[in-house]
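Session log. Operator J.P. requested a structure for one protein chain; no other inputs attached. Running the standard single-chain path with token output.
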Amino acid sequence: MSRTLKRIVLVAVGLVVAVVGATAVWVVFFQEDAPPPPSLDAVDGGTDTTADGDSPEGIWTVVANPDTYGGYRIDETFSGVSTPVEPAVARSGQVTGTVTIEGSTVSAATFSVDLTTLASDPCNVPPGVNLTCDRRDELMKTSGLETNSFPEATFTLTEPIELDPVPDIGAAVEVDAVGTLELHGVTQTVTFPMQARWDGSQLVVVGSLEIALADYAITPPDLPFLSVEDTGTIEVSMILQRP
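Structure written below.
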């Protein structure tokens, strides 16, 4: 092998090692420590058995709260790196909506998430380093979710939910909320698994819905050395109060 060819081979090998090494450094030092999925256990409602009457009837409105958010969770994989990668999670606290309960029936419900304010969870970096995953959030504005063009995701209940019997204060209930999900300019009928708890002065609702990106005409971002799964999860956690 000539000297020139040897040099070319060495340079090529060096570039491959550098790229793989840089990717490994990103995964090891900048990998996210993803927050857990939403759950009722994660929300301390501070149950008040004397507040707001003895029934959950009425119109409940989503309120701003650290436990109120909507967002997504999706798996990402780095090419050529065996180190497990945490799922990508981004959330927005800008959630609006209402739930109407009449007797033992949830007769209406709708909630919307402002996707333009989605923010990824902090990256897992060495102590003292202030770094967020804002690069992905910027990317979502023009690709993937394309939030510049489709700024909101909205779920609307289309079938009433029967609560039989009416839950006691502090008791968790699981329901399948049938409705429409409008996302990325596409509306689909979905069954959204949700959990709820009436804490007297407030109502806590959480849920996770797995979706196929193709069902909403969402094309995963095409990035070197990074692949994104073609299914993801819509997550919501909401605190609601009556006027």
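Operator note: The longest helix spans residues 3-30.
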